């Protein structure tokens, strides 16, 4: 796994840079849907980053964390979008 | 762990492609000018990037002999939920900003606001 061990730190760096870019968009706005979209991108990238770290350290501990991040991020995005649409989450 | 060379190269290619797509999606999220354009970038690129990374994870832990269904669960969940959240985001943006909504097809084209620059 020589090539993989060379590639993995660069891939982790690329995901970290893309998370930073999403964070910049979330801080800059300009609208509320932009911030929610940036949050969505942020959690998806963090999930992939966790899986890459799991491959790097050769452990399967991170899969449950990735699954929980996927579910809670989806619920968060849906709740925020519904709140923007209706002004209420549970009608 | 001793794995064949082709598996090493395949997993590396999957990870490189996945991180490239995620990076392109985030650059599009920062650089593009309009909300709908910005939505276009990460929803496709991030899903493809996460899919490639999850495939690489399935290959790695399958070769190590400790394969589980968790990666497939995560990828299935992401592929199911990403279009739903993108759709709801567009609906939220349209309810906040009426100019994003498509024109009503029942209205005559000449009577629409802004029809002069679009027709022709």
Write structural notes for this entry.
- The complex is a heterodimer of chains A (91) and B (120).
- With 91 residues, chain A is mainly α.
- Chain A has one domain (2-86).
- Chain A is 85% helix and 0% strand.
- Chain A contains three helices and no strands.
- Chain A has helices at 2-28, 32-56, 62-86.
- In chain A, helix 1 (2-28) runs antiparallel to helix 2 and helix 2 (32-56) packs antiparallel against helix 3 (62-86).
- The longest helix of chain A is centred in the N-terminal third of the chain and has 27 residues, at 2-28.
- Chain A is elongated.
- The termini of chain A are far apart.
- The model of chain A has no long low-confidence stretch (mean pLDDT 87).
- Chain B is mainly alpha-helical.
- Chain B has one domain.
- Chain B is 72% helix and 0% strand.
- Chain B is built from four helices and no strands.
- Chain B has helices spanning 5-31, 35-63, 70-96, 115-118.
- In chain B, helix 1 (5-31) runs antiparallel to helix 2 and helix 2 packs antiparallel against helix 3.
- Chain B is elongated, with a radius of gyration of 21 Å.
- The N and C termini of chain B lie far apart (65 Å).
- The mean pLDDT of chain B is 80.
């Amino acid at each position: 796994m020589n090539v993989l061990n060379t590639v993995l730190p660069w891939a982790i760096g690329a995901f970290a840079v893309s998370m930073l870019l999403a964070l910049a968009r979330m801080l800059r706005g300009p609208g509320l849907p932009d911030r929610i979209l940036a949050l969505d991108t942020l959690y998806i990238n963090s999930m992939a980053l966790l899986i890459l770290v799991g491959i790097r350290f050769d452990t399967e501990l991170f899969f449950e964390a990735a699954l929980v991040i996927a579910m809670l991020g989806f619920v968060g995005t849906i709740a925020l979008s519904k709140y923007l649409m209706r002004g209420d989450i549970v009608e | 762990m001793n794995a064949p060379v082709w598996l090493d190269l395949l997993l590396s290619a999957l990870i490189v492609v996945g991180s490239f797509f995620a990076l392109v999606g985030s650059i599009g999220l920062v650089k593009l000018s309009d909300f709908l354009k910005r939505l276009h970038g990460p929803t496709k690129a991030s899903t493809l990037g996460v899919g490639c990374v999850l495939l690489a994870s399935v290959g790695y832990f399958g070769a190590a002999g400790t394969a589980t269904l968790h990666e497939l669960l995560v990828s299935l969940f992401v592929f199911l939920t990403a279009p739903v959240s993108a759709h709801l985001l567009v609906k939220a943006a349209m309810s906040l900003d009426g100019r994003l909504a498509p024109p009503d097809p029942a209205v005559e084209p000449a009577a629409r606001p802004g029809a002069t620059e679009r027709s022709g």
